[in-house]
Design a protein that fits this description.
Radius of gyration: 20 Å
Low-confidence stretches: none
Shape: globular
Largest sheet: 8 strands, parallel, barrel
Helix content: 40-55%
Mean pLDDT: 94
Number of helices: 14
Strand content: 5-15%
Length: 331
């Protein structure tokens, strides 16, 4: 049984990765419905929380049906991160997670996210101060290192554990790799197999099929798997992995009707949470993913992403359901 303090996650939990502009409440609701065991919010700027920035504060929204859920924060200043931790704790999440893995330039080059991998002593100090600031369990998401010459994750994980984190999720790439090349899970396994480690170690990177999930579980011995990009437009992946692990059989792929239904559900929740204008606008990134692999879908995709009229979008989805009924997707 994987546990984060007293939060029981099951024998081999599947975690939804925190993804900017993706893992908001509507998307998390769909992932929870389809088998995710633990979810994290989009990362939230510590400076934004301190300044009471609307976008940052809005990301603190969590709902009872999501639990257990962790709120992820990032920043470069220790005092700001402590204050952001206090603000975050007031919203009553189950977990506070620290983002030490975001590789994008605007974050990492300011010393936040994966940028802190260039200053491990500061990373440890910041983590220790955050742990002291909150009564909630603190977890960390990070990468193997800044580049190929600084893959110190085995030592880093141990030091973070020693200052109080209660789980660690490791993406099997360096910051320099961004999302290129193949994730190296061998170092994740070294962290897990370190005899001094006693907290859950979750692996992340390149898991996009039930077979790979089971293979990596058996090969690397991690306590669970965090899934990110493979869940975008395909929240079914969580239940598919669980079913395959249990039975060795594949669940049927979602039908066109099911894809349209979940798109409608996502759209409705997006509008409910963000309002109609923003809810429609921010759904556009999801249409391509929900209908990925459907032959001759280009014209419909174009219509969906260019329309800002809710009735028109719903009519297009109705048309898709009829037009492509019985069509098998290519993925």
């Amino acid at each position: 049984m994987a546990k984060i303090r007293d939060i029981e996650l099951g024998d081999f939990p599947l975690l939804l990765a925190p993804m900017e502009d993706v893992s908001d409440p509507p998307f998390r609701a769909l992932c929870k419905k389809n088998g995710a065991d633990l979810m994290y919010t989009e990362f939230i700027s510590s400076e934004g929380l301190i300044r009471d920035a609307v976008k940052s504060v809005k990301k603190l929204d969590i709902f009872e049906y999501e639990r257990p859920v962790g709120i992820q924060i990032f920043g470069y200043d220790i005092e700001s991160m402590k204050r952001a931790t206090e603000i975050t704790e007031q919203t009553n999440p189950d977990i506070i997670d620290i983002n030490y893995g975001c590789p994008v330039k605007k974050v990492a080059c300011k010393g936040a996210g994966a940028g802190i991998l260039q200053d491990i002593p500061k990373m440890v100090r910041m983590t220790e101060e955050i742990v002291k600031t909150t009564k909630l369990p603190v977890t960390v998401k990070t990468r193997l290192g800044w580049d190929d010459n600084s893959k110190h994750i085995v030592e880093v994980a141990e030091r973070l554990q020693d200052v109080g984190i209660e789980a660690i999720s490791i993406h099997g790439r360096t910051r320099k790799q961004m999302y290129k090349g193949e994730a190296d899970w061998s170092l994740i396994a070294e962290v897990k197999n370190n005899s001094r480690m006693h907290i859950p170690v979750f692996g992340n990177g390149d898991i996009d099929t039930p077979e790979k999930a089971v293979e990596y579980k058996d090969r690397y011995g991690v306590d669970g798997i965090m899934i990110g990009r493979a869940s975008i437009g395909y929240p079914w992946i969580f239940n598919e992995i669980k079913h395959y692990q249990k039975t060795g059989q594949h669940l049927p792929k979602p039908t066109i009707k099911e894809r349209v239904a979940i798109t409608r559900e996502h759209l409705d929740m997006s509008i409910q949470w963000k309002g109609e204008t923003l809810g429609i606008a921010e759904m556009k990134r999801h249409y391509t993913n929900y209908f990925k692999g459907i032959p001759h879908f280009k014209d419909y995709r174009t219509r969906l992403v260019t329309s800002f009229n809710l009735d028109e979008i719903r009519a297009i989805l109705d048309e898709v359901e009829v037009k492509f009924a019985g069509v098998e997707t290519l993925v």
